[in-house]
Design a protein that fits this description.
- By secondary structure, this protein is α+β, with helices and mostly antiparallel strands.
- The protein has 6 helices and 12 strands.
- It has one domain: Deoxyribonuclease I, Chain A.
- Helix 3 packs parallel to helix 4.
- It holds the Pfam family Exo_endo_phos.
Length: 258
């Protein structure tokens, strides 16, 4: 089974890129972030024509997450991150696909830090960590996949000394991410490629992709109930080089049959 996460950076504007990649990669399930479209503008007909069922949680102009499943419709189990009923940003969606619970997340950027956006990021991360702990207690096969807006370590960022005070790399968010790993979640890509410098995002500015000046922001975390099934993991970085592509590349894993 192949599971991927992809920040599409505008699903309607980059729909041809998404459909091309789906046809090429043939993932069984995909978590999408940054739809930048309200629910009624989700391109369901095109997604279904490509062979995928979908559930989604959109938002006009910003945010938005979706879960796709090849040949089936995901069974939605949660639409908001618990802990703050006043938070209406569409950043979390959860669904069952082929016996696996997929949590699709788009963690806040947090810049500028310090400031209100930074405080919101820390609060959101705290609520997410508590929900992740509750998911671990269930003993279910859970994967939390998405754009975490965190570079966990120095191997995950080009020239880390330039990012010391950025909300993506500040000690507080790196510690929060490390706390997830310490709690029992497996960072799939780093687990299989412990020493490699791997990126999943390249800015549009300053020829970042051409210079390979990237960041690793997109992660798939596996619960202990499913981590032993992990076989391969990678980044379809060539997709970032396609015309009118997102500034992120798809990240994927393959799992052995249960």
């Amino acid at each position: 089974m192949k599971i991927a996460t992809y920040n599409v950076n505008g699903i309607n504007g980059r729909l041809p890129v998404l459909l091309r990649w789906l046809g090429e990669a043939q993932p069984d399930a995909v978590c999408l972030q940054e739809l930048k479209a309200p629910d009624e503008r989700f391109p369901l007909a095109a997604i279904e024509a490509a062979g995928y069922g979908a559930v989604w949680h959109g938002q006009k102009s910003w945010n938005g997450v979706a879960i796709l499943a090849r040949g089936a419709k995901p069974v939605e189990t949660r639409r908001f991150l618990p802990g703050n009923p006043d938070d209406t940003q569409s950043r979390y969606l959860e669904a069952a696909v082929n016996g696996i619970i997929l949590g699709c997340l788009y963690l806040p950027n947090g810049n500028p830090a310090p400031g209100p956006k930074w405080e919101y990021k820390l609060d959101w991360f705290g609520r997410f960590a508590r929900h992740a702990a509750d998911m671990l207690k269930t003993g279910l096969p859970v994967i939390l996949a998405g754009d975490y807006n965190v570079m966990p370590g120095e191997r995950d960022v080009y020239k880390p000394e330039r990012w010391t005070d950025d909300a993506l790399f500040r000690p507080e968010v790196r510690a929060a991410y490390a706390g997830l790993i310490d709690a029992g979640w497996t960072d799939a890509l780093r687990h299989l490629h412990p020493e490699e410098r791997i990126y999943t995002f390249w800015d549009y500015l300053r020829n970042a992709y051409g210079r390979d000046a990237g960041l690793r922001l997109d992660h798939l975390l596996l619960a202990p109930a499913i981590a032993p099934r992990l076989r391969t993991a990678g980044v379809d970085r060539h997709v970032r080089g396609w015309d009118k592509s997102s500034d992120h590349a798809p990240v994927w894993i393959t799992l052995a049959k249960p």
